[in-house]
Design brief:
Length: 193
């Protein structure tokens, strides 16, 4: 195959570029590096600690953000990642245990929010960052609500407390503009304007 490229180019510089362009099928993909994986893991742990702090004794009436939705909406800007999906599932299981939800309810909710955010960020032609973030966040709220309702009905719960959850969604949305600067790197925010 390289010989055919070399003969078609009739130029050694074209051959050299073809030889060093990397394996086929990998063009345009971002590599998942160890520092990036550690960053996602650190964000997941911080989101778990934020969720645990909001569910401690004496915080029942307080509006507290759902940090997993920040991760789902923000980390989708990197594109589809099994690593992110796995971290969201682990965070969801921890949230199930912390909040005494049916096992699998929060992982389902976070993965649905991540899926909606992926669709928002991967639009063709690309939309501005603010549009992608609004679609990712609001669509993620809707998808998470539907997923929690489905998981609760399958588990035999009559329904989840929509009032406190909507207040938590509101707090999550209000704090997202501040948190997004930590989650979404400047290179993605600037490139998508």
């Amino acid at each position: 195959r390289l010989a055919a490229r070399r003969h078609a180019c009739h130029d050694s510089s074209c051959y050299t570029a073809a030889r060093h362009s990397g394996p086929p099928g990998r063009a345009g993909r971002r590599s998942v590096t160890l520092p990036w994986r550690l960053w996602v893991l650190l964000l997941t742990v911080l989101a778990g600690l934020t969720s645990a702090f909001g569910l401690q004794v004496g915080m029942a009436g307080a509006w507290w953000p759902i940090a997993g939705l920040w991760l789902a909406a923000g980390l989708a800007s990197f594109g589809l990642s099994v690593w992110v999906a796995g971290c969201l599932m682990l965070l969801g299981v921890a949230m199930d245990f912390i909040g005494e939800a049916p096992i699998g309810a929060w992982p389902l909710a976070l993965l649905c929010a991540y899926a909606v955010a992926l669709v928002a960020w991967d639009r063709q032609p690309p939309i501005p960052v603010i549009g992608a973030e609004i679609i990712a966040l609001v669509g993620g709220f809707i998808a998470a609500s539907v997923a929690l309702g489905i998981a609760g009905s399958i588990a035999g719960h009559t329904g989840f407390a929509r009032g406190p959850l909507m207040a938590d969604f509101l707090m999550t949305g209000l704090l997202y503009p501040l948190v997004r600067f930590v989650i979404i790197p400047a290179s993605i925010r600037v490139a998508r304007r």
